[in-house]
Amino acid sequence: MTEYNFAYLDEQTKRMIRRAILKGLAIPGYQVPFASREMPMPYGWGTGGVQVSAAVLTPKDTFKVIDQGADDTTNAVSIRTFFQRTAGVATTTATSDATVIQTRHRIPEEPLHEGHILVYQVPIPEPLRFLEPRESETRKMHSLEEYGLMHVKLYEDISRHGHIATSYAYPVKVEGRYVMDPSPIPKFDNPKLGDMAAIQLFGAGREQRIYALPPYTQVVSLDFEDHPFEASKADHPCGMCGATDSYLDELIIDDLGGRMFVCSDTDYCEARQAAGHKGKDAA
Amino acid sequence: MIELKDVSKTFTLHNQGSAVIEVISDVSFAVAPGECVALTGASGAGKSTLMRIIYGNYLTQAGEIRIGGLDIVRSEPRDIIKLRRDVLGYVSQFLRVVPRVPTLDVVAEPLRALGVPTDEAQDRASALLTQLNIPERLWSLSPTTFSGGEQQRVNIARGFAHAYPAMLLDEPTASLDAANREVVLSLIEDAKARGAAIIGIFHDEAARTRVCDREIDVGRFTPGMAA
Amino acid sequence: MTPLLSVQGITKRYGAHIGCADVSFDLYPGEVMGIVGESGSGKSTLLNCMAGHLTPDAGHVVFDTRTDGPRDTITMSEPERRMLGRTDWAFVHQHARDGLRMGVSAGGNVGERLMAVGDRHYGDIRDKAMDWLGRVEIDASRVDDRPRTFSGGMQQRLQIARNLVTGPRLVFMDEPTGGLDVSVQARLLDLLRGLVRDMGLSAIIVTHDLAVVRLLADRLMVMKSGRVVESGLTDQVLDDPQHAYSQLLVSSVLQV
Predict the structure, then answer these.
(1) Which of C189, C197, C233 is nearest residue B113 as measured by Cβ atoms?
(2) What per-residue confidence (pLDDT) applies to B82?
(3) CA nearest C203: which of C25, C27, C19?
(4) Can you give the residue ranges of the ABC transporter domain (chain C) (predicted)?
(5) Which end of chain A is more exposed for a tag (fewer CB within 10 A), N or C?
C-alpha cells in the first residue's frame, strides 16, 4: 500500500478528473475532454473507467466490477484486484452491496439506488464518429445541435435490414439536448439509463473524454415515428434461474448446435438461484 | 410598339489595337402593332446587327430603344429577360439548344418558361410542328441531328409558340421549300393580324412584298456606306 | 422587388494576395447568374464568401430570409447561417464526393437534409428520397446503393437531389459540370435548367465553361484578378463583350 497513493492516481490527477466529472454532471451528455493518464493496463481494457473510479473512490466504498455482466472474467477480476491493492477498498460481487460499480457493456439488472455510482468503460465516446470522421465538425454539430446525421445512421439500418439493427451502443438524447453514446451496452439496457437514481459516469481513456448523467436524468433513445425504439432481448427464459426479465447471453454448449440462454448478469442469476429459482437447464 | 431613337453602335476591338468599328449610327424608326417592317440593304450593311441590338444581344452605345415601353438600353438584365419571355420574340438564323433535349420540348420551352402547364405547352408545340411538316417520329429526338431546313423549321416553331406582341425575324424563309415557306408566311400574317409588331429580314423578295408594310434601308445608317 | 441576395463590397485577401475585391451585385428571385474567369480569377473565393464557407475581410452578403426579411449572413450567428445552409441554401460542389457521404446509401444522402430539419418518419423520408432520385433520373432501385457504385454523372445528379430536397431558394454551384464527359454534361445541364425553371430557383454558377453559362445563366459576371471586369446579360456579354479581357476570353474558346 505504501508504494501507491490511494487508488493509484496522484491527488492532482484525481482533482483534474473530478473537475471533468463535475462539469460532465453539470452538462448531462456533454463530452468533457480530460488529460487521460497512462495506466498500468492497455487501452481498451478500461483505462477510462479505471481513472474515473480512482477519482471517485473513497476508503469507505465497496467496489464491484462487471464485464459483460460477469464478475469473474479476466478484465473484471484484474480491475477489482487493482483497486483492492491500490486503494484497499472492500470489494463485492453483489450489486446491492456495492457503492461504486465499474462496468463494461452492461447495466446491472437489479435497480441501483441513490448514492450509488455506476462507472462505464467507453471505447468511442463520439456517437457521430462513424459518419463524420472530423472531430472539429462533430464538436460543432454538438454545439449547434445538428443531429440529422444520427438519424441517417438509423435510416441506413432500416434501409439495409428492414428494422433498426443497431443492438448496442444505441444513441440517446439527454435532456432534449446532447446526443450521447451510452457505451456498448445492449439496447435492452437503454431504458434503465433514464431516470436512474444512481450517478452514471462514462470514461473514455484513449479518447480522453468523460461524460455523465446525474440522477433522474431524462434519456430518450432515438428512433423514427414509424420505427419506434424497442428494447429487445433473446426471447427465452434464463436456462439457469428461469428469469424472463433479464438480458441473456447465448452459450453454445456442444458442436451439434446445442445452445442455452443464461443471464448475462451473473450476480443477478446466482442470487435468484440461491433463492430457489430454477431454469430448465439447471443441474 | 418598337421605337428606336438615335441609336448608334460601335465595336471596340481591344485585342486588335483597340480598333473602333462604327457599325450604325443615328437609327430612328418605329413599328406599330400589326405592322411588319423589312430591314433591307446590301450584305454587311448591318441588318442582323441592328436586329441583335434591338434584341439586347448587342450593347448599344447611344440612343434609346423602347419595346412595349421598356428602354432596353438602360434596363437591368432581369427586365430584358422578362421582356424576352413575355413580349419580344426572336427567330434567329441558327438554332441553339441543349443537346439531347427532344424537339417537342425545345418548341414548348418558351411556353413552359411562361408557366404554361406541360401538357398545354406540348399541345401547342405539336400543332406547330405538324403545321411545319416535321414528322412526328422526329419529335422525341434532339434537333441537333436534323438537316438545316428541319432545324430552321424547329426554330420557327419555337419562335411562334408564344404569341409575342413584338417579333424579330432573321431570314425566316431561307432554306425552306415552297410548302413550308407558305406556312411560315401565313404564321407571320396571323401574327400581324393579332397585332404583333414585326421587324424582319427577308432576302426572298416575294415574301417581303407579301408580308411587309414598309422597308427600311439600313444602308443609310451605315457610316461609310451611305450612298 | 427585394433582391433575394444582395452582395455588397465583398473583399477577401490572402495576405498580400487579393482573392476578390469589392464585388457587388443583386440577385433577384428566379435569376441565374454565371461567374466566369480563368483559374485564380477569384470566382471560387467569391462563391465561398457568399455561401459562408469563407469569411470575407469586408462587405455584406444580405439574404432575404423567409422569416425575418433581409439579413446580413456575414454577421448572423453561425447556427443561423448553418441552418440556412440546410434549408434555403444549397451548395453543389464540383466533385460529388465533396458534397456526398460516400459511405451512406443514396436514400440516406438525399434524406439527410430532411432529417436535419426534423423529419422523423422513415417511410416519408424514403418516399421523398425516391421521388427525388426519379427527378434527377436515377432509377429508384438504386436507393439503397452507395454512391461509390455510381458513375460520375449519377453522383453529380445525386448531389443535386440531396441539395434540392428541402426546396432551397438559392443554389450555389461550383463548376457543376466540371470533370464530366461532354454527353453527361449536356444531360446534367438540361436537368438543371428544368429544375431551375420548375422550382423557381435562383442560382449562382461558377464555371470556366462559357457553354455552360450560355445555356444556364441569365446574367454573367466576368472576373479577372479578383475583380469584376464586366457584367450583363449572358448573351450580350458573350456576343458583344466590352472589356478587353472578356473579348480575349470569348475569342479564346474553340468554335465547334
Answers:
(1) C197
(2) 93
(3) C27
(4) 5-250
(5) C
How far is residue A57's CA from residue C231's CA, in Å, rounded to a whole number? Answer: 72
Q: Phi and psi of C26, rounded to 5°?
A: -115, 140
Residue located via cell numbers 424579330: B168
Inspect the interface and report whether the beta carbons of B78 and C31 lie closer than 8 Å: yes
Q: What is the pLDDT of residues C118-138, one digit of tens each?
A: 999 999 999 999 999 998 989
The count of residues in chain B is 227
Q: For cell 487493482, what's the residue?
A: A82
Residue by residue, DSSP assigns A37-65 as PP-SS-TTSSHHHHHHHHHH--TT-EEEE
**Cα–Cα distance between B102 and C43 in angstroms, integer?**
33
ipTM above 0.95 for this complex = no
Strand ranges of the sheet holding A219-221, from the earlier edge strand across to the other edge: A178-180, A172-174, A219-221
Closest CA to A185 of A103, A270, A80, A71: A103
Query: Which among C17, C84, C18 is positioned nearest to C51, based on CA atoms?
Result: C84
Comparing A49 with B227, which gets the higher pLDDT?
A49
Which sequence positions of A are flagged as catalytic?
A: 29, 238, 241, 263, 269
Q: How far apart are CA C97 and CA C76, in angstroms?
A: 29
- DSSP letter at A226 equals T
Q: What average pLDDT does range C190-213 have in this prediction?
A: 88
pLDDT per residue as tens digits for the range C21-50: 999 999 999 899 999 998 889 999 999 999
| Nearest-Cα residue of chain C relative to residue B9 | C240
Q: pLDDT grade, residue C88 (50/70/90)?
A: very high
What are the Cα distances from residue A31, in Å, to A10, A138, A141? Answer: 23, 11, 13
pLDDT of B226 higher than 90 = no
Option in C187, C190, C242 nearest B59 (CB)? C242
pLDDT in tens, A111-159: 999 999 999 999 999 999 988 899 999 999 999 999 989 999 999 999 9
